[in-house]
Design a protein that fits this description.
mainly alpha; 579 residues; two-stranded antiparallel sheet
Length: 579
């Protein structure tokens, strides 16, 4: 190959930033291409050699090209040129027009960028979208899934990492500007069935919604205080008269009217035992937003130290809010609202007082040194809006953004991988579940994915998972070919030497056991006297479609130096596999 040809190929490979126009032309009815899934799988494998993204980016310019120069191979030339080119452009990557176009499309809440058409039937949809939860992925319609497809469209690990860093910058900008992230619920607690990355973005949106509510609540409280001040000037609260207003008051034992602060709504059939005034539900502080990693840390802390500090803080906060909303209340009133099982009602002694609530606290509440009574005696009437926050939204989001800036490399790509995998199977199920010829095979593939990804060792089976996905894509793109192969396997006679399609049939039936994921050419043939090929299959399931399967007959490269990480993979946008 002459120098001009080499330069042409290298320049094509250097086009490592996916084009927004190409991504916009993706068929909304199609599943993500296998090439993107495989690229993310390779990133997972390569990322195991780095502690974090910063470690990856800091190391990527320091590898020695001596080994590549020694071979003088075409691949080595491409790797050297690519690295030199990337080193020069890395600093300006975030300002590249193509990168900015991708960022704009990803964060455009009103756009249809990479918006797949999911099944509309609610019952069917609920069944299909269970797979992402089963494999701990992000929901198929979420921002994370779109991000996964974009990052998987990059051709080098370095640029995948650089683009992620640019995404984090945008996440931080959205937070500072008070804008909700698209493709993420605006006010939901973290979904522990989804991946950690999705949970963390849920926290960011939820914190933003809480800050907005807090601002509104503060303005409302200040307005009430101004109105109350003007009423005091016009009324004589000490003798129990107030001017007509929208404010709520409660009469205490002395007969004085006291303003209710932070009252939310009237309770049903609950009145204060000492004053007879109705009990109002208080506005309470919202609890902390805990992702799965924080829940695990909290549980470990409690088990290690026996601390219940967080629970006490929440209880004290609720008591203060209750006192502010219900002037003249006592501990028994609070218990009847907050913990009904700890209030034991008794029968009235006479019919004349039958309307008066009678009862007593439970035995645990009456014990000396009871925590509830101690907290009640120390608590003051303070509405939730004026209390010390139990959860600091700014601190929580800042912690998440700092973590995402230096997230463990393999951990990031694992979450992107399973999220895009989940989308592919949701889309495919809508098309293949009703196909009598292919539905059985599809559900075997799906069951394999679920059972494998639910195990902690699934990260070591990336080859196998990709082969299953490739098989599923073949069913969508070339259904006639798959059906023909199935029929040939069923009709061909079995020969004792195991070389006929009969052996193929047996392997075909054992889909869940036939994923070796290693280099087929390096496998040792089974002993000649071994007749039971089911117990030791020599070929992965994807070999049934050898004409369409090539890359994952070998393990993804594990780079000992950055030359392997930065080495681009030649992708063909018009095909569905890597060559």
């Amino acid at each position: 190959m002459n120098g001009f040809a080499i330069e042409t190929v290298v320049l094509q490979v250097l086009e490592a930033i996916p084009c927004i126009d190409v991504l916009n032309t993706i068929n909304t009815n199609s599943i993500p291409p296998t090439s993107v899934i495989k690229q993310l799988a390779i990133a997972v494998e390569a990322g195991k050699n780095f502690k974090s993204l910063k470690d990856l980016l800091a190391s990527s310019g320091n590898s020695s090209p001596i080994r590549e120069r020694a071979g003088l191979s075409f691949s080595a030339v491409k790797s050297l040129v690519l690295r030199d080119k990337e080193d020069k452009l890395a600093s300006g990557f975030g300002d590249d027009e193509r990168v900015l176009a991708l960022i704009h499309s990803l964060f455009d809440a009103d756009g249809n960028f990479l918006q797949r058409k999911l099944v509309s039937d609610s019952n069917t949809c609920a069944t299909m979208i269970s797979l992402p939860k089963d494999i701990h992925a992000a929901p198929p319609h979420s921002f994370i899934v779109k991000l996964s497809e974009v990052i998987g469209s990059f051709r080098t690990l370095r640029k995948m990492a650089l683009f992620w860093c640019r995404v984090v910058i945008e996440l931080r900008r959205f937070w500072s500007e008070g804008r909700h992230l698209p493709g993420i619920p605006v006010d939901e607690i973290p979904d522990l069935n989804s991946c950690l990355l999705y949970q963390q973005l849920q926290v960011i949106n939820c914190c933003l919604s809480r800050k907005r509510r807090c601002t509104i609540a503060n303005e409302s409280f200040d307005s009430e205080m101004r109105e109350a001040s003007s009423n005091v000037e016009e009324s004589d609260v000490s003798i129990g008269t107030v001017a007509a207003s929208s404010l709520l008051y409660a009469r205490v034992k002395t007969g004085e009217l006291v303003l209710r602060l932070g009252a939310n709504q009237l309770t049903e059939n609950l009145t204060m035992l000492e004053t007879g005034e109705p009990i109002y539900l208080p506005i309470t502080q919202e609890g902390p937003l805990l992702t799965e990693d924080l829940i695990r840390e909290t549980e470990e802390l409690v088990l290690r130290t026996g601390s219940v500090g967080a629970g006490c803080s929440r209880l004290l906060s609720d008591m203060q809010a209750f006192k502010a909303a219900n002037p003249g209340c006592i501990l028994e009133d609070f218990v009847r609202w907050h913990s009904p099982p700890d209030w034991v009602e008794t029968e009235p002694s006479d019919e004349a007082n039958s309307s008066v609530t009678r009862g007593q606290l439970s035995s645990r509440m009456q014990k000396e040194g009871n925590l509830w009574r101690e907290l009640w005696e120390t608590s003051r009437p303070v509405p939730a809006i004026k209390q010390t926050p139990l959860f600091d939204e700014d601190l929580a989001v800042e912690g998440i953004l700092n973590f995402l800036e230096d997230i463990p490399t393999s951990e990031l790509f694992q979450q992107l991988f399973v999220s895009l995998l989940g989308l592919g199977f949701v889309l495919a199920e809508d098309k293949l579940s009703a196909n009598d010829n292919l539905s059985k095979l599809f559900y075997e593939c799906k069951d394999y994915i679920v059972s494998t990804c639910q195990k902690s060792v699934w990260k070591d089976k990336m080859d196998d998972i990709c082969q299953v996905y490739e098989t599923m894509e073949t069913m969508l793109l070339s259904p006639e070919e798959v059906i023909k192969t199935i029929k040939q396997a069923e009709e061909s006679p079995t020969m004792e030497n195991g070389s006929s399609a009969g052996e193929l049939k047996r392997r075909f039936k054992k889909l869940g056991l036939n994923f070796g994921g290693k280099d087929k050419q390096q496998r040792k043939p089974p002993p000649k006297d071994q007749k039971n090929s089911d117990e030791n299959p020599s070929r992965p399931f994807a070999s049934f479609f050898d004409s369409k399967s090539s890359l994952f007959s070998k393990k993804p490269p594990k780079p000992e130096n950055l030359s392997l990480v930065d080495k681009p993979l030649p992708l063909d946008e018009n095909d569905w596999t890597l060559v």
